Amino acid sequence: MEQHWKDKISNPLQLGGIETSTLDNGSGRGTRIAWFNTGGGLRFKIVIDRAMDIADAFYNNYSLAWLGHLGVTAPQPFSNQGIDWLKTFGGGLLTTCGLDHVGGPEEDEFGRRGLHGEISNIPAEIESIIQPDPLAGKLEMSITGIIRQTRIFGSCFELRRKISGTLGDPKVSIHDEVINRGNTAIPYMVLYHINFGWPLVDEGTKILWEGAWTSREGELRSKVFKQGNDFRLCPAPIQDHNGDGEEAAFISPVADKEGNCVCGLYNSKIQLALGLRFNKDQLPWLINWQHWGINEYVTALEPATNPPIGQSMARKQNQLIFIAPGEKRQVNLQLEVVVEESSIKNFLTNFTH
Length: 353
Known about the structure:
By secondary structure, this protein is mainly beta.
């Protein structure tokens, strides 16, 4: 970061930093949040009481995230029945799904599970907030919390989440560490539901990913994800997607020689790209969700341990991951806004489509 501010500021928050507060109105009343301002144009709202997921997100005057009708809602820890998860799903830049089930509601001999699991409805215990101190040469900032998804005679997850950035850079890093604090091996399924909306998502915006894919619906039934259709280009709102119209592709993303995958969006109208990076060993799957309903206009890129087929199907396919007592699993994600022409050109070289 160029130090144009040298000798001209008293308080680092004039440049950027982290500010916590509590919502006092509407469906989110009483919910703890943290505004994270990178000082590089990127700022976003962390919902501390919703697993430290991310709601609103902006780059300068451009909104990046899709927000549902409700926006932020207070956590509902007992919403893990049927499709109750949808009643509190506010969209946002990040909603975490899991930690032991990703997919539709199901019941088998191992138990009953609601849509997309419990973790996003559990408050975090904040462990630390580290502010930047540019006058001392410290440009890093972070917020770290612990989220516990646990019950007696059952799974006992501990998610330690750190969200960090560097003053002056329009990027954010998410480091998750999942630990089995129980005394038996437990299933582990996680999906990062990263939701993008207007104006980043608009007619002509490119959806960027590489890899072999299959349609969730199957190509015979699919209207979006089928050979010959340009499903990597955002369309105008689609009448058929009103209500519950939506589709998804399950992708095995291409990784570089270090094992890292990159995907994202590029809107040439506003000369703004957003890149998402993750490690294929940690998250071997990528889901592209497209829902082009009128006033519900959204696409999502969702790195995951499994496609959202549910714990039961993953078990039958021998794809269900188990974590032993005391075992840790780590995930690293990075989101970066790209606006410089040369940087956008370099970013686009990751994609052939």
